[in-house]
């Protein structure tokens, strides 16, 4: 059933299939006519039987049969024998149809329908399934039908688990059997069935089973998928960086001044209009604050006190946490807004000076650090979780000469560090080494390993005080920084292909990500305070890759010079792209599309989509394929606040 | 006891080829020659087909051993060589090829009742690999339509405690194996995959595909291929337990590969890998055979019979119970002309193929000195080695729930001086070799002398059975051993040493004795070579269109 190449049809086959089509058409019109006239005689039914035998996918014929079935049943309700024969005939027809094509959705569906009508002759179903499943043990139709029948028969999950074990014994590559196993075990653990109440024992046994398979044949994927599922079961509650939904004033309490949750609206920072997001934002208002008193207002936040925040993987956040901070309300500095005094930011190295440690610590960094949910409040990772992960680490060290062994080891080490948490990344160096090996060993998946490597590298940078300090800079010198330049975090020249650790970056106002290998900046929308951003010398290849910028309302200067924007008509590095026809931007674009007289702006819809809402004063786009005279004209129209474009002051025009 | 047999007379009296003896190689040659259109006369002195490859009831087996273990006295009516008018007549004698035949019965009554329901293999244990060339030949020759096969359910490696360990020969078996550690499983499977890649690349090359870019590095180097297999296995970091399984239970090596001085057949990597590949391609090749081996229902004697039937269909004439007494040689040149039968009739042919047990008595007895040299080879055929064989009948299986299986005892697994592997094959009544509910166990081990060979067989039997010890042979019977371990009890056994006479080609050709291997590969090879030397321009079974149905396997 798997891996069989399709053969080109020979002329005889074509002739035969033409003849078959002719026959089929005649049959089909007869059945449809019977359907229309509600003719349910034996002869009429026989025609539909012949039709579904030839073409099991003909759902109209099945629907007709359903009507006929019910019609005939009501007529013979009194006679149990004729009910039985109607039922059996119907199942027989489905069986023949399935023999013709046992991947027919319609036929399987019809069978389910018949059986759910009257619970009889189910015994035969398991026997039939046995036949279909031995013909193709990985046929998912048969497997889902099996689950249906098992439920209908009230067959115990334990028996079904045993069945998957048998099939796995026969062939460890039976992905469907492994999958069904995960479904059954989830059920058994959820229902606290005897023998499945202790999650750690169940998981340990499963780890042992799948280990046998993985060591027997490390090239087979099925076991690895199952292992990944087990790992997920072991550390799921702990995984960070998951998008959540359900953040609102009932799940999060914010007390400030004399207000409790008053008028607070939480918004997800999500690019895809999803209800889930990694970052949520709300704005506090202090209407009665005296702008010059420098008074500190305490803010108290409680989260997790009631259910409602759910991660995209279905995990309910219920860890009650509480933290307090103070805010001072200050007037906005007018000079920055006016623009005449706007200076050009130049991201060259000589403009940056390493910060003094004490400066960093008195700054926002330390301040935001207090806001992290503290781990002391959480129970330490369960001993069994640590034990399982340690056991797995011990074993997969032995398989670290193959790529999937290395990858699993890297994942286990990551999970282990996350479990032990407290911000220490004991194994990061080892994990980075593994991903570097993998990039060499398995070039087709280079980008995946590169991304994982980048995320770990960034975690490593952000995890210790020393490494963070070495990346905090003043722009210009101390005197000029007092003129309003925030501290700059320089994550340049790290060859990052992806960014992460956003929770630790929330304080950043000036960020240098230049000279990396970024193809996407997903997640950057969480950095709401960002004013200056350099993405120069990366591998960004479209404006839609910059979509997170739309959420950064404070952004003033943006450097995207020397990327690959416009080099290719389609950005092949990303799966989800907005299009000019999509609802999110369609209307806006239509209204504004003829912006510049005589020059078609059609090619710039992506740039329009990303830049339109921003109040940029400085933009660098030089070194991208898209940058030319027309684009300059376009940018000037779209960004009326712009003062500097590619280093040239626009007033001079 | 009986009347002197009345022999039929044979007509015609001139043939292209006369074959004496109906063992497997003789039968293949007879069938192949008939298929090529030769006129063939096929004779056997016994009343049954199969000679040294036959399967016999207990009494026939006993008398077969008797008649082949002591030299027959020369018949009084003839001297060693006489001259008739035109020909010199050289008398033939039976050469004893079975030594030290030891038959013990522990339950006479039980066996007497059923003695005719046995089909005991003279040259067991022997099996067919599902993917080996003898299967192809059976199909190609059309002989397969006369034989039905049974699948062998499992193979094991045994140890001195009597424990049997499954041979992890497939991925599923490795996965389920409880005795291997995780790393052992990993190493073993990786090795299997290496062999698969190597064989696939090799067959690609054979088909002339030049696309050799990929997978080249995973192939096995030329240097490794020429090195001893045992060293290559060590190089592949396989632990000794797995090495032993691969060498003796999969590649079926006979001699201790670690003991270079005593190893008479050091397996090269390329041969070891070829055997491993044969084993692996055998698994799952036939629909109803889950394992690597099959066995003919009614015993291996069915195979020569199938070829004889095939030959008969093509016009070969069969006469059983017809001993050949002498050779007829042309007086002047000593060239072979024909044979004289026990009936007195003279038969003439261009070629003659003789069963390995026929020989010319000591040349000194012959007055025809001038012919000595040309016929010296008849008496001087070398016998290099011996194989010890055993046949045991039990009332219960050595392994509950499994009927037909193979056990290998690698060298040194039973006692320190054990230098060859011992193989044991259990076949149950469901293969019609014995009454239902009974089991037959065939044993074999190569050996230099009878003592050593018997010692090997006894060691294996001690590990497997509750052996009635030699002192109370008479009194002991199955039911008395209730308190013994749950090992099966022996009902009957035959232990014997068989000479491994090789085949020979000359103006008169000899087929070889059954070899000490588990499969028929070498038997087939020697029959084919012999045929091709006799008929260099003929194909060994020309392709025909009539064979269609392949192999019939009884559903398990």
Low-confidence stretches of chain B: 75-80, 469-485
What is the total tally of β strands of chain A?
Answer: 17
Helix content of chain B: 25-40%
With helices defined by DSSP (H or I, 4 residues minimum), what is the helix count of chain A?
23
- CA-based shape of chain A: elongated
Major sheet of chain B, described briefly?
Answer: 9 strands, mixed
Q: Could you tell me how far the N terminus lies from the C terminus of chain A, measured between alpha carbons in angstroms? A: 69 Å
Structural class of chain A: alpha/beta
In angstroms, what is the radius of gyration of chain A?
32 Å
The CATH H-level superfamily of the domain at 14-96 and 300-382 and 501-541 in chain B is: FAD/NAD(P)-binding domain
CATH architecture of the domain at 14-96 and 300-382 and 501-541 in chain B: 3-Layer(bba) Sandwich
Would you tell me the overall average pLDDT of chain A?
83
Amount of beta strand of chain A: 5-15%
Beginning-to-end CA distance, first to last residue of chain B: 45 Å
* Bulk shape of chain B: globular
Largest sheet of chain A: 9 strands, mixed
Keywords (chain B): Cytoplasm, GTPase activation
InterPro entries (chain B): FAD/NAD-bd_sf (IPR036188), GDP_dissociation_inhibitor (IPR018203), Rab_escort (IPR001738)
Family (chain B): Belongs to the Rab GDI family.
Protein name (chain B): Rab escort protein 1
């Amino acid at each position: 059933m798997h891996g069989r190449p399709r053969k080109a049809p020979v002329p005889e086959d074509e002739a035969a299939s033409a003849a078959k089509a002719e026959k089929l058409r005649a049959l089909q019109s007869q059945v449809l006519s019977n359907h229309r006239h509600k003719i349910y005689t034996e002869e009429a039914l026989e025609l539909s039987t012949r039709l579904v035998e030839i073409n099991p996918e003909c759902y109209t014929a099945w629907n007709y049969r359903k009507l006929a079935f019910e019609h005939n049943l009501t007529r013979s309700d009194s006679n149990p024998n004729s009910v039985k024969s109607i039922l059996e005939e119907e199942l027989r027809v489905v069986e023949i149809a399935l023999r013709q094509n046992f991947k027919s959705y319609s036929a399987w569906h019809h069978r389910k329908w018949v059986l759910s009508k009257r619970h009889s002759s189910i015994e035969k179903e398991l026997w039939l399934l046995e036949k279909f499943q031995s013909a193709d043990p990985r046929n998912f139709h048969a497997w889902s039908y099996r689950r249906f029948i098992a439920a209908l028969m009230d067959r115990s999950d334990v028996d079904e688990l045993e069945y998957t074990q048998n099939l796995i014994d026969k062939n460890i590559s039976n992905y469907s059997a492994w999958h069904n196993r995960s479904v059954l075990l989830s059920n058994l653990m959820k229902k606290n069935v005897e023998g499945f109440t202790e999650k750690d024992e169940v998981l340990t046994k499963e780890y042992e089973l799948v280990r046998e398979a993985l060591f027997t044949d490390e090239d087979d994927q099925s076991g690895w998928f199952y292992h990944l599922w087990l790992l997920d079961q072991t550390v799921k509650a702990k995984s960070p960086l998951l998008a959540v939904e359900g953040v609102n004033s009932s799940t999060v309490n914010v007390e400030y001044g004399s207000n409790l949750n008053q008028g607070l609206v939480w918004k997800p920072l999500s690019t895809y209009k999803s209800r889930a997001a990694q970052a949520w934002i709300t704005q506090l208002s202090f209407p009665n604050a005296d702008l010059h008193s420098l008074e500190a207002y305490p803010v108290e936040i409680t989260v997790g006190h009631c259910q409602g925040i759910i991660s995209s993987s279905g995990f309910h956040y219920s860890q009650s946490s509480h933290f307090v901070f103070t805010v001072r309300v200050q007037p906005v500095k007018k000079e920055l807004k006016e623009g005449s005094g706007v200076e050009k930011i130049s991201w060259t190295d000589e403009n940056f000076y390493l910060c003094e440690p004490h400066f960093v610590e008195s700054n926002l960094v330390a301040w935001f650090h207090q806001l992290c949910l503290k781990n002391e409040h959480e129970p330490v990772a369960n001993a069994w979780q640590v034990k399982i992960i340690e056991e797995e680490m011990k074993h997969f060290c032995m398989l670290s000469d193959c790529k999937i062994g290395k990858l699993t080891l890297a994942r286990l080490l990551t999970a282990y560090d996350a479990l032990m948490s407290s911000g220490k990344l004991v194994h990061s160096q080892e994990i980075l080494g593994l991903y570097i090996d993998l990039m060499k060993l398995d070039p087709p998946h280079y980008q995946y390993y590169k991304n994982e490597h980048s995320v770990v590298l960034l975690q490593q940078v952000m995890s210790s005080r020393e490494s963070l300090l070495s990346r905090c800079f003043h722009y210009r010198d101390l005197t000029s920084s007092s003129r309003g330049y925030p501290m700059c975090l320089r994550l340049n020249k790290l060859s990052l292909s992806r960014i992460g650790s956003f929770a630790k970056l929330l304080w950043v106002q000036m960020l240098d990500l230049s000279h990396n290998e970024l193809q996407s900046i997903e997640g950057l929308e969480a950095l709401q305070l960002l004013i200056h951003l350099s993405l120069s010398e990366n591998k960004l290849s479209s404006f839609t890759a910059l979509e997170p910028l739309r959420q950064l309302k404070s952004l003033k200067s943006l450097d995207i010079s020397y990327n690959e924007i416009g080099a290719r008509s389609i950005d092949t590095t990303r799966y989800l792209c907005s299009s000019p026809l999509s609802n999110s931007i369609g209307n806006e674009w239509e209204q504004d599309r003829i912006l510049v007289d005589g020059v078609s702006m059609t090619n710039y819809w992506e740039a329009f989509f990303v830049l339109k809402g921003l109040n940029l004063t400085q933009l660098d786009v030089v070194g991208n394929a898209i940058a030319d005279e027309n684009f300059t004209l376009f940018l000037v129209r779209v960004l009326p606040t712009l003062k500097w474009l590619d280093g040239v002051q626009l007033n001079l025009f | 006891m009986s009347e002197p047999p009345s022999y039929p007379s044979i007509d015609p009296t001139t043939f292209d080829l006369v074959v004496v003896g109906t063992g497997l190689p003789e039968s293949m040659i007879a069938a192949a020659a008939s298929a090529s259109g030769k006129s063939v006369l096929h004779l056997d002195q016994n009343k049954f087909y199969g000679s040294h490859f036959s399967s016999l009831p207990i009494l026939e087996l006993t008398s077969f051993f008797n008649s082949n273990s002591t030299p027959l006295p020369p018949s009084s009516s003839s001297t060693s060589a006489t001259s008739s008018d035109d020909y010199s007549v050289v008398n033939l004698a039976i050469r004893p090829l079975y030594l030290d035949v030891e038959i013990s019965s522990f339950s006479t009554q039980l066996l007497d009742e059923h003695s005719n329901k046995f089909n005991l293999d003279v040259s067991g244990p022997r099996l067919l690999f599902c993917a080996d060339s003898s299967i192809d030949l059976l199909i190609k020759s059309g002989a397969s339509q006369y034989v039905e096969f049974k699948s062998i359910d499992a193979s094991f490696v045994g140890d001195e405690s009597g424990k049997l360990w499954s041979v992890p020969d497939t991925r599923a078996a490795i996965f389920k194996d409880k005795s291997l550690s995780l790393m052992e499983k990993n190493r073993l499977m990786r090795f299997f995959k290496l062999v698969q890649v190597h064989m696939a690349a090799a067959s690609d090359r054979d088909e002339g595909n030049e696309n050799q870019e990929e997978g080249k590095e995973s192939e096995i180097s030329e240097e490794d291929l020429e090195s001893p297999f045992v060293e290559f296995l060590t190089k592949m970091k396989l632990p000794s337990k797995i090495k032993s399984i691969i060498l003796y239970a999969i590649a079926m090596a006979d001699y201790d590969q670690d003991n270079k001085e005593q190893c008479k057949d050091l397996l090269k990597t390329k041969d070891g890998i070829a055997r491993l590949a044969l084993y692996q391609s055998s698994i799952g090749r036939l629909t109803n055979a889950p394992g690597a081996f099959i066995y003919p229902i009614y015993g291996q004697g069915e195979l020569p019979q199938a070829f004889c039937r095939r030959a008969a269909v093509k016009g070969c004439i069969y006469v059983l119970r017809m001993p050949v007494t002498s050779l007829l040689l042309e007086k002047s040149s000593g060239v072979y002309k024909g044979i004289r039968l026990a009936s007195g009739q003279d038969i003439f042919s261009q070629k003659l193929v003789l069963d390995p047990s026929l020989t010319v008595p000591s040349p000194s007895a012959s007055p025809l000195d001038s012919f000595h040299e040309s016929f010296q080879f008849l008496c001087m055929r070398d016998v290099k080695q011996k194989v010890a064989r055993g046949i045991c009948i039990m009332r219960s299986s050595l392994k509950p729930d499994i009927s037909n299986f193979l056990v290998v005892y690698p060298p040194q697994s039973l006692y320190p001086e054990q230098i060859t592997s011992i193989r044991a094959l259990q076949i149950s009544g469901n293969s019609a070799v014995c009454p239902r509910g009974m089991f037959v166990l065939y044993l074999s081990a190569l050996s230099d002398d009878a003592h050593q060979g018997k010692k090997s067989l006894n060691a294996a039997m001690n590990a497997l059975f509750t052996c009635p010890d030699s002192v109370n042979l008479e009194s002991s019977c199955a039911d008395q051993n209730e308190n013994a371990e749950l090992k099966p009890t022996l009902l009957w056994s035959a232990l014997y040493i068989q000479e491994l006479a090789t085949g020979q080609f000359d103006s008169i050709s000899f087929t070889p004795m059954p070899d000490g291997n588990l499969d028929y590969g070498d038997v087939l090879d020697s029959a084919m070579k012999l045929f091709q030397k006799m008929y260099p321009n003929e194909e060994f079974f020309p392709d025909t269109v009539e064979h269609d149905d392949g192999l019939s396997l009884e559903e398990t």
